[in-house]
């Protein structure tokens, strides 16, 4: 009866239509993005404003019911879905989708957590501004989820992660209180930086309901190039030269292995590479500038010519039209989709110092081939900021299920290599329920203990997204 009473109270708070308790209708909310895990929930609750979020959280605290905040549910580490106990509610923020304010003079935008990233980017462009966070899932991921996971994406090299693109937050605390920290300030030394505490906490410390985002002048010109090279070390040398030639205009520097792109052309044959896929690695780089297009193009051509003459790159294609640029980007953005069509694999989202990027790939590739001969590496990522999607597929003619039985062994090789290079086993996807145990093994006891103390201080009942981030 208590369970029925709780659901009825939720219906009174947010409206009957916004509480789902039918197990069949809950499936899209309790199943992870990769469709490998389905949890259970008491209900899926969709508040329509911050006050309703606070009322639901307060009710859950009173009845000791765990809360799993959820945005677009595009995460890859089981961070936004409940476990199989059936004790939690999913708190969907999708109805919180208002853009509250665009302050052009201050270069800020205040948006609610359920806003789709693409919609935020479009609103910025309509105001002749740029919001630079760029992800493959931008058509479905939400700002609240981006901030909760401290998303990175392809423009981190120039603009930083979601944390660096956020000035202020509105948060519902585990007590059901509303913290209005929607500051539009670049300088604010009035105490602990609570914003940074909640960004990247994956909903374990509170529910982000709105945010103040940084906007930037809209670039006048955008130039994209697709480059072939031999080794990750050559890619690192090329990055150094590109930064010297282009400075802050260098927005994107994406490394892709040949096999990654071969998967794209196999499963999306209409996507044609601008260069033959006959070299081991490729780089997609982009310059965005406020200077005239001819000047940017001339600088780009000079950079590419110098790199070819110095035998750092083998070949290059410079996009001449917007359509050609989009075609190059489509190759990069469809790697994950192509890999999913190819079959199951062991995914890693890691970070190492950029200076050690090439060493990590070469040494870890060698170790994996030694222990798992013929394994196929889908290696792609953001070389400019030192983060990498480093995925391991089964050798040909080895069934995926058989190969995945060795997942823990594969993870150990990869994560030990990351640790030796003072890196992190999660760069931008977060830890969720998938990686929190592994993470504890690579962090010091002091660091884990401090995080546990913060969690206990803010959420002593462990009701906010339990089983995520911390062991």
Your description of this structure?
The chain has 471 residues and is an alpha+beta fold. The chain has four domains: 2-92, Uridine Diphospho-n-acetylenolpyruvylglucosamine Reductase, domain 2 (2-Layer Sandwich); 99-217, 2-Layer Sandwich (Uridine Diphospho-n-acetylenolpyruvylglucosamine Reductase, domain 3); 221-325, 2-Layer Sandwich (Alpha-Beta Plaits); 343-442, Alpha-Beta Plaits. Helix content is 37%, strand content 20%. The protein is built from 17 helices and 19 strands. It has helices spanning 2-14, 23-30, 50-62, 117-126, 143-148, 156-159, 194-198, 232-246, 258-267, 293-309, 322-333, 335-342, 357-371, 400-404, 407-420, 436-442, 445-458, and strands at residues 19-20, 43-45, 67-70, 89-92, 99-103, 108-112, 129-130, 166-172, 178-181, 207-214, 216-217, 221-229, 250-257, 281-289, 315-318, 345-346, 349-351, 376-382, 387-393. The strands form four sheets. Strands 12, 13, 14, 15, 16, 17, 18 and 19 form an eight-stranded antiparallel sheet that branches. β8 and β9 (178-181) form a beta hairpin. α8 runs antiparallel to α13 (357-371). It is globular, with a radius of gyration of 23 Å.
């Amino acid at each position: 009866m208590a369970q029925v009473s709780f659901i009825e109270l939720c219906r009174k708070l947010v409206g009957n239509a916004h509480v789902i308790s039918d197990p069949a209708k809950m499936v899209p909310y309790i199943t992870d993005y990769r469709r490998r895990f389905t949890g259970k929930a008491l209900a899926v609750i969709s508040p329509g404003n911050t006050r309703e979020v606070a009322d639901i959280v307060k009710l859950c605290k009173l009845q000791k019911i765990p809360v799993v905040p959820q945005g677009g549910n595009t995460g890859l580490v089981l961070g936004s879905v409940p476990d199989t106990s059936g004790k939690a509610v999913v708190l969907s923020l999708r109805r919180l989708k208002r853009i509250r304010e665009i302050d052009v003079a201050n270069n800020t935008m205040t948006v609610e957590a359920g806003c789709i990233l693409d919609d935020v980017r479009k609103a910025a462009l309509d105001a002749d501004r740029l919001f630079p966070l760029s992800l493959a899932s931008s058509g479905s991921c939400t700002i609240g989820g981006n901030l909760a996971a401290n998303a990175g994406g392809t423009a981190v090299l120039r603009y930083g992660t979601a944390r660096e693109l956020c000035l202020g937050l509105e948060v519902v605390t585990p007590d059901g209180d509303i913290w209005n920290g929607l500051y539009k300030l670049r300088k604010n030394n009035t105490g602990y930086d609570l914003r940074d505490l909640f960004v990247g906490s994956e909903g374990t410390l509170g529910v982000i309901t709105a945010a103040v985002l940084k906007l930037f002048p809209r670039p006048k010109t955008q130039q994209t190039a697709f480059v072939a090279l031999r080794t990750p070390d050559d890619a690192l040398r090329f990055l150094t030269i590109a930064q010297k030639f282009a400075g802050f205009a260098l927005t994107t520097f994406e490394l892709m292995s040949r096999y990654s792109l071969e998967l794209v052309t196999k499963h999306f044959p209409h996507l044609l590479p601008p260069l033959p896929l006959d070299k081991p690695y490729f780089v997609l780089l982009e310059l965005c500038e406020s200077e005239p297009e001819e000047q940017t193009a001339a600088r780009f051509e000079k950079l590419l010519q110098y790199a070819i003459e110095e035998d750092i790159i083998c070949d290059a294609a410079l996009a001449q039209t917007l359509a050609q640029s989009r075609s190059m980007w489509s190759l990069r953005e469809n790697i994950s989709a192509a890999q999913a069509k190819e079959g199951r694999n062991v995914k890693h989202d890691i970070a190492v110092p950029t200076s050690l990027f090439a060493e990590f790939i070469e040494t870890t590739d060698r170790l994996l081939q030694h222990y798992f001969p013929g394994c196929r590496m889908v290696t792609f990522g953001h070389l400019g900021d030192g983060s990498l999607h480093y995925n391991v597929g089964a050798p040909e003619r080895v069934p995926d299920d058989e190969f995945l039985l060795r997942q823990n062994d594969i993870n150990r090789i990869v994560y030990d290599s990351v640790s030796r290079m003072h890196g992190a086993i999660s760069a931008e996807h977060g830890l969720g329920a998938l990686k929190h145990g592994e993470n504890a093994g690579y962090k010091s006891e002091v660091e884990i203990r401090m995080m546990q103390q913060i969690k206990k201080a803010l959420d002593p009942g462990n009701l906010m997204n339990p089983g995520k981030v911390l062991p």
